[in-house]
Specification:
The protein has helices at residues 2-6, 11-20, 31-43, 115-129, 151-155, 228-242, 274-291, 315-327, 370-386, 407-420, 435-441, 466-481; strands at residues 47-50, 56-60, 72-77, 99-102, 105-108, 138-143, 165-168, 176-181, 183-192, 202-210, 245-253, 263-270, 300-306, 331-335, 343-355, 358-367, 390-397, 425-429, 446-449, 454-455, 463-465. It is elongated and about 85 Å long. Strands 9, 10, 11, 12, 13, 14, 15, 16 and 17 form a nine-stranded antiparallel beta sheet that branches. A six-stranded mixed beta sheet has the order 1-2-6-3-7-19, with helices on one face. A four-stranded antiparallel beta sheet has the order 4-5-21-20. With 486 residues, it is α+β, with helices and mostly antiparallel strands. The protein folds into two domains: 2-182 and 400-481, Aminopeptidase, CATH 3.40.630; 185-397, Alpha-Beta Plaits. Residues 209-292 form the Peptidase M20 dimerisation domain. InterPro entries: Peptidase_M20, Peptidase_M20_dimer, Peptidase_M20C. Keywords: Hydrolase.
Length: 486
């Protein structure tokens, strides 16, 4: 399947992307891709090394006549989100991504594509391997674990990098120049409980919510997409209010930075109420699907009878849990007062697991204002603690404060307008970029982020525009020619 992708232009970028996509690279398990990148740099005879946390740095001297330009650091992250459709038979640990071309898009067969941030990595690889592209001194920084905590960027020590300008290649609209981003924090609620034997006059039901679009929990949070965890909880709340039910299991969502696409729950319903329950469930499902019909046309909500569960949750805890999740905010919490149309603060209820006497709820809270981020995190903490959960915060990372007077921004603005006859969109994004973290140890480094157009990141609908990659590659080459002198 990758053969047709390898024939796309620019071939140097697409071939490196295809090579990279043969290497499994989930967050926190990047050993194979680290080795792949170290071998790549050393095969070119370039200075190549990894730091204490696993980030890979490769340095390439300036081409003739460009030795007096400022040194640049080109940065992308090695890890990718591993997510697939429930009915896709694919092993991320052993198989390469199965790519194909559909019109102007490169897609993957039922899985994430890895364009986030594989296209950035492939771009840098193509530049490092090139023999005929004029450029200043290039320092390639390939960070690890961007998707699940940004620990690579956090672990990069001061004094390692030599670049004076950082070009982060992790933005997902080719007409945007990003100069700021949100920070984030993980909110995790845990609780243990003693399971009970279900009532013998109950009937087992499996509830299913699936075929939602999903998407990036930062970049797509404002789009009105459905969250499978919140939809399932709404169904459980309605069932609990009207019928004698007992909750056995919940398995909803997947990764912290992906809007949940699927959720499954097992419950019991009193045998005498099953007919009414089935009718009410259909009514609830139809109502929710109608509400979300514009943004989630493929949403399916089903129920089916199943074996009576062996164990269930105590009803008192069941009520507290369902009401706590109902209370917990999901989606946009506040819009920015400083930057028009920018989401300031949001939360994604990303993962809910109830099984074998254990409850785990995982959220990712984002904000470009640190105090607002902690305000929402504390609101979530309060809701879950009232249900008896122990709540912890982790993975706290800072936002990137916009600098509209950035010198490299002015260079890229002029270059974009001269090439395309239009002004680029200068924006801050609600996603997490590593620039804010890197800036803590490199406060004097001038930073900007840009990239090709990628849609559906963090979901099996992820795709990248072929024509956009061509445009973006041309932009990169022109930028390299115009890096200011020291």
């Amino acid at each position: 399947m990758s053969k047709e992708v390898r024939q796309l232009e620019p071939k140097s970028v697409w071939n490196k992307f295809a090579d990279l996509n043969q290497v499994p690279r989930p967050s926190k398990e990047e050993e194979r891709v680290i080795r792949f990148m170290l071998d790549f740099g050393k095969s070119l005879g370039l200075e190549t090394f990894s730091d204490d946390v696993g980030n890979v740095i490769i340095r390439k001297p300036a081409t003739a006549g460009m030795e007096d330009r400022k040194k640049i650091t080109l940065q992308s992250h090695l890890d990718m989100v591993h997510q697939k459709n429930a009915d896709t038979d694919f092993d991320f640990d052993t198989e390469g991504i199965k790519m194909y071309v559909s019109g102007d898009w490169v897609k993957a067969k039922g899985t994430t594509l890895g364009a986030d941030n594989g296209l950035g990595v492939a771009t840098i690889m193509a530049l490092l391997e090139s023999t005929d592209i004029p450029h200043p001194f290039i320092e390639a920084l390939f960070t690890i674990d961007e998707e699940t905590g940004m620990t690579g960027a956090m672990g990069l020590q001061a004094g390692v990098l030599e670049g004076e300008i950082l070009l982060n290649l992790d933005t997902e609209d080719d007409d945007e120049l990003d100069i700021g981003c949100a920070g984030g924090i993980d909110v995790t609620a845990l609780q243990s409980y003693t399971e009970e034997t279900p009532s013998t006059d109950g009937v087992g039901f499996l509830l299913t919510v699936k075929n939602l679009n999903g998407g990036h929990s930062g970049m797509d949070i404002h789009k009105g997409l459905g969250n499978a965890n919140k939809i399932m909880n709404r169904l459980l709340f309605n069932a609990m209010e009207e019928f004698d039910i007992q909750l056995s299991e919940i398995d909803g969502g997947s990764l912290r930075n992906a809007i949940p696409r699927e959720s499954f729950a097992k419950i019991t319903v009193n045998k005498a109420q099953t007919t009414k329950f089935e009718a009410s469930f259909k009514k609830w499902a139809d109502t929710i699907k109608a509400e979300l019909s514009v943004n989630e046309p493929d949403l399916t909500i089903t129920m089916s009878t199943t074996d009576l569960p062996a164990k269930v949750m105590p009803k008192g805890l069941q009520e507290k849990l369902v009401k706590a999740i109902y209370t917990a905010h999901n989606g946009v919490y506040a819009m920015s007062a400083a930057i028009p149309d920018l989401v300031e603060t949001s939360n994604n209820i990303a993962r809910i697991i109830v099984r074998k006497g254990q409850i785990k709820i995982g959220c990712l809270t984002r904000s470009s204002v640190n105090s607002a981020k902690m305000d929402l995190a504390n609101a979530l903490k309060s809701a879950f603690e009232l249900a008896g959960c122990t709540v912890s915060f982790s993975g706290d990372y800072p936002g990137w404060n916009p600098n509209p007077d950035s010198a490299i921004l002015k260079v890229l603005e002029r270059k974009y307008e001269s090439l395309y006859g239009a002004k680029p969109q200068v924006v801050a994004c609600h996603a997490g970029l590593e620039c804010g973290i890197l800036g803590q140890n490199y406060p004097d480094m001038d930073m900007i982020s840009f990239g090709p157009t990628i849609k559906g990141a963090h979901s099996p609908d992820e795709r990248v525009s072929i024509s956009s990659v061509q445009k973006y590659w041309g932009f990169v080459l022109e930028i390299l020619k115009d890096i200011p002198k020291r």
